Amino acid sequence: MKFTLKDYQEDAVDDLLTSLERARTSWQRDGIETSLALTAPTGAGKTVIAAAVIEALFYGSEKFNIEQDEGAVVIWFSDDPNLNDQTRMRLMDASEKFTSSDLVTIEPPFSKPKLDPGRVYFLNTQKLSKTSKLTRGHIVTDENQTDISAVGVPDLQGYTLWETISNTIQDDDLTLYLVLDEAHRGFNTTTSRDKTTLVRRLVQGHSGYPSVPIVWGISATIERFNRAMGEADASKDRRAFPAVMVDPVRVQESGLVKDVVSLDIPNEAGNFDTTLVKLAAQKLVASADRWADYAQAQGLTERVIPLLVLQTPNTPDHEAIGRALDTIAEVMPDLYSGNVSHVFGEHTRQHFGGWDVEWIEPQRVQDTSSIRVLIAKDAISTGWDCPRAEVMVSFRPAKDSTHITQLLGRMVRSPLARRVPGDEALNSVECILPFFDRTTAGQVVRYLTGQLEEMPGGVGGKKILLDGRELRPNQDIPEAVWEVWDTLPTQTLPKRGARPVKRMVALAQALAMDGVQHRALADAEEEMHSVLDGYSARYQQLLDKQIDDVWRVNVQQISGTSGSTKLSYRDFSMRADDRAIRSAFEEAKKAFGADIAQSYVNHLAGTDETDDDGLRDAYVKTAALSMIKEIREKVDIEASQLVDRWFAQHRVSIKSLPDVRQQDYEEIRAMTILPQKGELGRPRSRMEDYQTLDSDDQIALAPLATLHLMSDEEGLFPLSSLNAWERKVVDVELKRPGALAWYRNPPRSAVDSLGIAYRDPQGNWRSMHPDFVFFHEVRGEVKASIVDPHGTHLDDAVIKLKALAEFAKDFGDAFHRIEAVAMAGSSMRVLDMTIPAVRDGVLYEDKPAMEFYRSDFAVEFEGFH
Fold first, then answer.
1. Where do the DSSP E strands lie in 593-715?
2. How many whole angstroms separate alpha carbon 88 and alpha carbon 91?
3. End-to-end distance of the chain based on CA atoms, in angstroms?
């Protein structure tokens, strides 16, 4: 893969490959048809996940421990040819092994008796319709018919497409995998009945044609896909494997999707060609300037060119749209018709007032940076993404709230495929709704935050702002506070399948590439050579035995004679040939990493390229070393120690690198089986809401507080994201003697968020983010304290309480207090984890969270009334 998979993507790929392997076995051995599903929120990178899965099917994968399926054939099916084109380009971009000829869009004429293995064929509903040139002559008869009638075939083709698919399924050397993209739409009863019928025929077979053996659905919601498969195969006994479900929280933490959705809604219904359209244009200009500044500051060769989307009703008013474009042009005088396109179903030039606007294929919008304004109905709202779309004005009336949320689902992908560290303004999307009133606004907010399930996939988990304003570092905060902030510990989440030597090589390559340590890879290789040389001498007897084992290949000969039922067995050994030695060396590459294993072979063999025996001995010895458990463990320890030294040695240099490079180092830091101490970054920009939404969907002004690290120009921070007792905690802490500053810690994995690693009940690593960090002057020094209002009613309350205690055990010296607070009856109680007795009590006693607060470990939260 060209891309480094996120942890949740690796987990999804591994689970999908396991299910597909079981599905293939069920089909080939028992003739059982199966289905499985991948369900992931918008922006999770489902195409990247699919690319990794298909690449592993076609070519095998050492990383995922899967052998090549030499007969694998994939049909990628959707109901939208534009979506297929976009998917094809993304698969090509994601995989380092796919070629253009491996990804085939089925177009007439397509005369093949069977589909070829190692190919992905893109097919859409229209290609299977009765009027398609690929199926002309195909006759649909009784579904229970077992004989295929001899019928005419399409012009210029020897086979109908249905026959080609049927022949592929019936070939014992081939395994057909059908991928249903946006699977819940294919069987949707609200779509064309013909489309629904065609997908059902493809899945379950018809007119004597066989059903597809393995169906892999990619869907926004697992319930819709399961229902669809039940409808499609109601008469079949198709086995359904457990769905692979991507956790939206992990997607949000990855930074692949934007963190903030800012809504602008008038107090009463207005006209879209007035103030709010002008506001949208101003936001577009401001966003373009901000991205340009960021590109310059980071030394990026390409900058993000943000896009404004005008969403119209299905029956648009062309003159009104023209007036909106005129308004935008007042703010952007250089805007002309060439900067505007539409994606209407009518693929023709459209006239909007005095504007002459061309149609553009939806999948081309992202890469056509000359397009600054895009006009769309609802076609944009499903199936394709445009990460640079950062501002949207919807002309739709309030009743179309579902369309609004669906469109925003297309706009949430981060343009750089990563979070911009510490800058929420560049991690946000603006949504302007002129025709919505404040009552309907509440519904939209609840859609977007996932409180209503009307929108599958959604953009739940994001910060939704009704009156979003940008905050900057507070000028009233002493520099001494920031200096303490720079020293605070945070934790990175371990990376699945991480290996110390691989981590060391990745760090060496990064340091060399960035000019931080020019010979880093050579230095790492030399150090590992010395380590392996030393342990070779130390474990000489074990090494000699393993060398003998590598050279010796054990063989069992089985023989029989004609007319006899008895077999004879003979065991003997042979000297390994080059192929057997290479096979043994594969284990060394897994244990030490390919770079170190091969470089150690070269180190042992020397410079004499004609000495084949010496080279064989080097491969054998390296393979033998990797088979000794003690040596593998020692090498891992030495590699980890070298990485720790380099991170400490180059901390300042790494901090001065561009954001994208710093993120790479944080990912390398996390390539361990245990959490690592990470580096906090200073926040640069923060988006907060100056209005709140009550339980009756009524809008109110947010209360304000001083001394937050991020503030508006008046030094104020809105408390819109805090509940009543969290606000009370802030009030109490700011009244304590020596109060200097405080920070509302973002509830996500980000460079400006203090994170604490913990394991969930399933054993997966997760990250919790304490609510507050307070700064006080204590005996003449600035000290930081964690104060975390803790909900005791949640299922993971005890787990997170223990995680906070474990963090205090490791990093308590960096804080004045580390406190978990909770309401116990009518009083607020506090557990200070920097006190050993409290910390150990939480760590080693098992009881409900509330019992800890009611125990002698807890004390009254001073000042809380």
1. 676-679, 686-689, 691-693, 699-701, 704-706, 710-711
2. 5
3. 57
Q: Are 495 and 672 in contact (CB under 8 A)?
A: yes
- The DSSP result for 714-766, as a single string, is TSEEE-TT--HHHHHHHHHHHTSTTEEEEEE--SS--TTS--EEEE-TTS-EE
Pairing relation of β-strands 175-181 and 781-789? unpaired
| Phi (first) and psi of residue 860, to 5 degrees | -65, 140
Return the SS3 of 648. Answer: helix
Instruction: Provide CB contacts within 8 A for 774, sequence distance 6+.
Output: 733, 734, 739, 741, 742, 743, 784, 785, 787
Q: Which amino acid is at 223?
A: E
Q: How many CB atoms lie within 10 A of CB 556?
A: 8
Among candidate residues 679, 659, 660, the one with its CA nearest the CA of residue 669: 679
Cβ contacts of residue 811 below 8 Å, gap of 6+? Answer: 489, 677
Which residue has 């469109």 as its token pair?
Answer: 407
Model confidence at 801: pLDDT above 50:
yes
With vertex at residue 484, the alpha carbon angle to CA 483 and CA 485, rounded to the nearest 5 degrees, is 90
pTM assigned to the model? 0.79
Instruction: Supply 496's token pair.
Output: 């699945």
DSSP assignment string, 566-616: -EEEEEEEEE--HHHHHHHHHHHHHHH-HHHHHHHHHHHHTT-TT-HHHHH
Enumerate residues 6+ apart whose C-beta is below 8 A from 285.
Answer: 331, 332
Nearest to 247 by CA among 460, 476, 520, 525: 460
- 389-394 and 307-311 strand pairing: parallel
Q: What is the DSSP letter of 494?
A: P
Q: Tokens at residue 137, please?
A: 């002559």
Q: Tell me: the pLDDT tens digits for 526-549? A: 999 999 999 999 999 899 888 888
Q: Bridge partners of 340?
A: 373
CB 363 within 8 A of CB 386: no
Q: What is the pLDDT of residues 814-858, one digit of tens each?
A: 999 999 999 888 888 999 999 999 999 999 998 999 999 999 989
Please enumerate in sequence order all residues whose Cβ is within 8 A of that of 357, keeping only pairs 6 or more positions apart, or say none.
Answer: 337, 340, 341, 342, 349, 350, 351, 375
Cα 289 to Cα 470: distance, rounded to the nearest angstrom = 15
Residue in the structure block whose two tokens are 């070269």: 602
Cα(266)–Cα(100) distance, rounded to whole angstroms?
A: 50
State yes or no: pLDDT of 381 exceeds 80: no
